[in-house]
Amino acid sequence: MTVFVSDIAFSPAVKAQQELRGSRRSYQAMAQKRDWRSEIDADIAAFVAERDSFYIATSNASGWPTIQHRGGPRGFLRVMGPRQLGFADFAGNRQYVTIGNLSENPRAMLFLMDYAGRRRIKIWGKARSVEDDEALVASLAVDGYEARIERAILIDVEAIDINCSQHITTRADEATIRQATDGLLHRIAELEAENARLRALPGAAAG
Hints:
The protein is an alpha+beta fold. Helix content is about 30%, strand content about 30%. The chain has a seven-stranded antiparallel β-sheet. Strand 3 and strand 4 (about 85-90) form a beta hairpin. It is extended and about 90 Å long. The termini are far apart.
């Protein structure tokens, strides 16, 4: 029986539902064309480098899942190799759910969103917490970001799905909005200055 990368998400139960509801043939074709992948190519690496946040899903030994947000400066999620990602786990609310779950179940999933570009990438892998490697932790630090790093999290990638843009609402972050509006604000200031100059000319008020 042929095993595809997509089988990590499409279990027999999922495939049965796809068959029942008429989508199995198209997803089987995608798997055969290798639309799913297990290595980080240049396009995915560029996408990862632009992210300033993502969601990580883990499950405990009982099977209960948890999704948590991880954020930081753009690019804090690093490509460590063709099949590995890593990030500095900054000090937070001290729940320690993710590392607790990983201590008994290494399976994890990362959900990366680009709202402005309406793209999303799902990454499945096996993750681990690393606290006793100072060089590794230091290598994941971000210059100028003062948050305290508690540990490194490494994810060995097993499957990647570049998902469709359907139903993604376009959003932009503050930096993108500022970049788009700075030129307009500058032009408005120029026009206001020009208007004030013209109003100050002799006879302008009478006109």
